[in-house]
Amino acid sequence: MAGKIRASNLNKSVVENQTDNPSAAVADDDSVLILDKSLGQLRKTNTQNIGLKAPTVTAVSPTNVLRGEAQGTVSFTVTGTQFNAGTSAKLITNGGSDVQFNSVTIDSLTQLTCVANRSDFLNANEPYDVSVTNGTGLNVILVNAINVDGAPTFTTAAGSLGSCRASGSFIVEAADPESGSDPQFALESGSFPPGMSITNQDSGRATISGSITGTLPSTDTVFNFRLKAFDANSNVSFRDFSITVLGPSFTSFTSSGTYSVPSGTTVVDVLVVAGGGGTNAYPGARPADPAIHGNNGGGGAGGLIFMPGFPVTPGGTVSVTVGGGGEFGTGQDSVFGTLTAKGGGVGKQAFYIIGYQPGGAGGSGGGGGKSDRGPGGAAGPATQPTQPGNSGAYGFGNPGGSQGGGGGGAGTSGQPGPGGNGGDGKAYTIADGTTSVVYAGGGGGSSGSGGTGGGGPNPAPSVSDQVQDGLDGRGSGGGGRPVAAGPVNSPRSTGGTGIVIVKS
Question: How many CB atoms sit inside 10 A of residue 240's CB?
C-alpha cells in the first residue's frame, strides 16, 4: 500500500457527494481534510481555523432622525465586529419590511458607514432595526436602533427652580435629540407667580422672569406649573416645576454691620434711625439761693428716614452704621448705603441767674435751657432733611423746644416753655410686618414728659439729681434734669441708640 494518499488516488465525485459525518469531533481530532475546489486538491488544516464567526453590532449613531421636509440624506455610523469583505446592511421597519441603505461602506472590521434618504424614514414605521450580514453570510440585528422625530428632552431637573421675593429670573433648558431645531417652551398648566412670564431664547433655553405684581404674599407661597417643550415637528415633552415667592424678610441692625441682599431682590424698605441726643449741665456756679431752679431741655431724638422701594443690587451688600446715643451730647448718625439719618441734638441745662444755653442742633433739635431769673435758651434746630407725609424720600426731624422745653421728635416738635414735653416719634410696622412701634421720640424737659417713642421722661420732681436716659434701639432723646436746685455738673442723660431695619 502506498505510504501517502494523493488526490489522484481519490474519486473526487465520491468525496464531494458524501453526506456529512454526524459524529462530533473529539479531543484528538486536531486536523481535518477540506477540498480546495480551485485547485482540485484536498488540504489539511487545524480544526480551529475553520470556525465561522458571526458579526456583532454594539451601537448605531445617530439614534434619532429628523425627517423634516424629507430632503437630503442622513449618514449612520455602525460599530461592532467581524465586518469583513462583502458585509452588507439594511433597515427593517416595525412591520418587518426591508429598507435598503443608499450605500454601505466598510471602514474597518469594526465600523460601517451607511447612508439613507430622509424620505425613507416615516414616523409610522419607527422604531427601525439595523441588520448586518457579513461576508460569510452570518447575520445580526440590533433591534429598535433608530427613532424618527424624537421628542425634546428636558435637561433642567424637575421640581423647584428656586425662590424670589419682589422679582426673579429662572432658566429652563431642553435638547432636541435630532439636533434639527431648538426646542420651544410654553405653559401647559398651573401658573407662574403674578407678573412673571416665559420668554423663549436660542439653544433650547427659556427664561421665566418678571417683577411680582399685586400684593406680595405675607408668607412663603409656592407656584406649581407644567411646561411643554416642543420641536418643529410638534413632538412634545412635559415636565413639572415650581417657583417659591418668599414672604417678607425682616432684618434689624442694633449695631453696625453689612446687609446681604437676597438673590432676586432689587428693592427693599428701609428704616434708618440715628442715635438720640443726651443732656448736658451748664458749667456755672451753684446758685447761692436754693430756691433758684433751672428749667432744663430734653435731648433731641435722632433723625429718622423711612425709605420704601430703596434700590439694591441682587446678591450684593450694603454697609450699615448704627449710631450710638449721645453721652451727654449729640447722638451719632446712622447710615444705610446712601441714606444718612442725623444724630439728635443735645439738650441744655441751666442753674444760675444767667445760666441758660440754646439747645443743640441735630436730626431733631435739643431743648434750650433756662434759669429762673434769666431769658431762656433757644430751641435747637433740626438738621435732618425732611418732606411732608410718609413717603420718606428724605426723612423726619423736628426742632426742640425753647426756654427749657423738650427735644423734638420725628413726629412733632418739642414743647416750648419751662420744662416742656418732648416731641412725639413716628410709628412703623417694619420690624415684623404687624407690630406698630414708635421711634425717635424727644426727651422731656425738666418738668415735662418724654415724647412717644421712648423719649426720656422727667423723674419725680422731688427727686433731685436724677435723669432718665433715652430708650436704646429707638433713637430717643434723653430726659432733662429735674427742676430742683443742684450742684455744678449735675447728672446728665444719654440718648438712646439708633437702629436700622430692612424689609425685603
Answer: 13
Strands 184-190 and 153-154: unpaired
> 141-145, 372-376, 393-397, 405-409: which has the minimum mean pLDDT?
372-376
Same domain, 221 and 362: no
Question: Is residue 414 within 8 Å of residue 370, measured between CB atoms?
Answer: no
Please give the backbone phi and psi of residue 43, each rounded to the nearest 5 degrees, phi first. -125, 145
Domain count across the chain: 3
Question: What is d(CA 499, CA 324) in angstroms, rounded to the nearest whole number?
Answer: 9
Do the bridges between strand 279-280 and strand 347-348 make them parallel or antiparallel, or are there none, so unpaired? parallel
CATH number, domain with residue 162: 2.60.40.10
The answer to whether residues 280 and 417 belong to one domain is yes
On average, the pLDDT of the chain sits at 83
Grade residue 81 by pLDDT with cuts at 50, 70 and 90.
Answer: very high
Q: Which three cell numbers stand for residue 379?
A: 430751641
Q: Using alpha carbons only, what angle is made at residue 251 by residues 385 and 243, rounded to the nearest 5 degrees?
A: 115
Q: Looking at the structure, do residues 328 and 186 belong to the same domain, yes or no?
A: no
C-alpha angle 464/467/472, rounded to 5°? Answer: 165
Does 405 reside within a domain? yes
Domain membership flag for residue 29: no
* Residue 379 burial (C-beta neighbours within 10 Å; 0-12, 13-18, 19+): buried
Cβ 333 vs Cβ 345: under 8 Å: no
Cα–Cα dist 363/155, whole Å: 57
- What is the rounded CA–CA span in Å between residue 133 and residue 80? 12
Pair 166, 184 in one domain: yes
Asked which of 211, 245, 279 is the last residue of a domain, the reply is: 245
Distance from C-alpha of 484 to C-alpha of 96, rounded to nearest angstrom: 113
- Looking at the fold, whether 327 and 429 belong to one and the same domain comes out as yes
Last residue of a domain, one of 96, 118, 146: 146
**31 lies in some domain:** no
Mean pLDDT, residues 309-319 taken together = 92
pLDDT of 137 over the 60 cut: yes
Q: Tens digit of pLDDT for each residue in 437-454?
A: 999 999 888 877 877 877
**Does 25 reside within a domain?**
no
Cα-atom radius of gyration of the chain, to the nearest Å?
47
Is 205 found in the same domain as 182? yes
From residue 99, how far is each of 55, 69, 120, 344, 378 by CA, in Å? 20, 19, 7, 91, 105
* pLDDT above 70: percentage of residues in the chain: 79
**Is pLDDT above 90 for 352?**
no
CA distance 205 to 265: 23
DSSP state of 49: G
First vs last Cα of the chain: how many Å apart? 112
Please report, as a single letter, which amino acid is at residue 490.
Answer: S
